[in-house]
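pasting for ref. prot 1 ->
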Amino acid sequence: MNKKFMGIILFCGIILFTSFMSIGKIYENQKAYKNELIRFHVIANSDSPKDQALKLKVRDEVIKKLNPQFEKSKSLDESREIIKRNLGLIEEVAGTVIASNGYDYDVKANLGEVNFPTKNYGSITLPAGEYEALRVVIGDGDGANWWCVLFPPLCFIDMENGLTDERTKEEMKSVLTKEEFNMIYTEKKQEFPLKLKFKIVEVLEDAKEKINNKLVMK
């Protein structure tokens, strides 16, 4: 082999090694910051325009009801307790909205681990995986969902406000380490590389889960 060819192989090897190190770092850090967030998930009865509109009305009233308590919350544990002691109230508020709009759907609120796909929140990209979340399921829960981050309290930021992106970053920085924040924050020009890395991590996690399931079955 000539020196030029060896140089190309060495260069490619360095690139691959660096990429895998970067992906490994993302994999480890995303485990950490997933434990620092609580998401809010509202699932509509169906994808019909009326059911989707109802979902947003339920969302608005639940957020409005919880806002005063979450504005005072200073920690993940405190926010978790607020949710737990208000699950009945959340169902009551949602049920009232549903009934006042002429529907008789059941509604169920619970706090637990929920699997999410990769989602963007302004300049913040949250990778796919399991997150702790407050779920409000309307009726059959077969419709498209709406979501936000409940802690830190990003749900209560006006998404039409031009300062939303800056406020979002500040709220995230308040609960994440600098390294964790840098893993999920991306400028527009960096968006595709970050999403690609998250996708690779997602594939690796799926493969790991399948292998573990096979071992359990044996």
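and prot 2 ->
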Amino acid sequence: MQRGDSLNSPFVPFSPNPSIQQGTPTSTPPLKHTLSSSTSSNLRYSSSRKSIYDRHLNRSQRSELSKASFAFLFGEMVQYAQKRVNGIADLEKKLNLHGYSIGQRLLELLLWREGRSAKRETRILGILQFITTTVYRSIFNKPADGLEKSRDNEDEYMLIDNDPMVNSYISVPKEMSQLNCAAFVAGIIEAVLDGCLFPGRVTAHSVPTEQLPAKTVFLIKFDEAVIERESVLG
């Protein structure tokens, strides 16, 4: 995860509608969201007076969230985190922690949906394939673009995303070019690994190319105990 100097300006989340693109961040007053009592009630309950917690967990298995909604929520989360940190390193750490909490719940949901057919992975390659396919597809509706093993370090693997969705809706100032908001996704991956007893550290790194300017590599560095267990299993 890249480290940098202190932050001097807040983020401006990218708006899918050019007509509502924000101007200078410092001159724009904070938005105030007001909900009437009837609107608040409609958000909490459906016409049948059942809350979202009454729904079956498989009901939303094939449902999709609009990108506009995701862009707004993620942009607000980045702004919220940015106002409470002192530098790029702290901001990436904060995003990583937010992603970690989501990854814990996502793993529980995926295993519950698999039911008795759920398989406990005991090998590194197996858990990484589970993340690049099942986990990644459940979040972004597509598998990861690649998975590689480090040639220099036995405990390092690289998961590749050529165009992370989380970076598509954030406008990063030039003075903060080292920031990669995909640290949020790195936190999700790390939580899944920890939950499956493959502890390690996951960081997001920008590796732009001429054809893939948004390419991001998630560097997965496993704990020594994981490598020792792998060698014992042969």
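DSSP finds six helices and six strands in the chain.
Residues 64-233 form a domain with the Muramoyl-pentapeptide Carboxypeptidase; domain 2 fold (CATH 3.30.1380.20).
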